[in-house]
């Protein structure tokens, strides 16, 4: 059994996205909702510490994987190198994913 624990590292743009998500939900439903949505996203991303290879590779880059977060609906794009998981992008599932494809297809 694999007992490796991976370190999850967030790119600055992902931290910015988390802040924007919190502000959005605070405006829509108050701070309690914002905290709930933020915590759920971080909880899902934290699972990558133990199972980083559980998500599919993207079809545009072998090195990049995609995690689907259902509530709220976001997609996290990340890489795994040695014992580090690097979260590259966090985007709403309704957004055009072609921008991510274009940005990383030659990664």
UniProtKB/TrEMBL annotation:
Superkingdom of source: Bacteria
Protein name, entry field: Plasmid stabilisation system protein
Species of provenance: Moraxella equi
InterPro entries: RelE/ParE_toxin, RelE/ParE_toxin_dom_sf
Annotated keywords: Toxin-antitoxin system
């Amino acid at each position: 059994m694999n007992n490796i624990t991976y370190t999850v590292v967030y790119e600055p743009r992902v931290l910015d996205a988390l802040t924007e998500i919190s502000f959005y939900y605070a405006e829509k439903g108050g701070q309690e909702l914002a905290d709930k949505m933020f915590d759920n996203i971080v909880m899902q991303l934290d699972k990558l510490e133990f199972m980083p290879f559980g998500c599919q590779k993207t079809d545009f880059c072998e090195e990049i994987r995609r995690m689907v977060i259902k509530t709220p609906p976001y997609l996290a794009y990340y890489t795994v190198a040695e014992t580090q998981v690097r979260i590259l992008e966090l985007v709403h599932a309704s957004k055009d994913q072609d921008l991510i494809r274009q940005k990383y297809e030659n990664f």
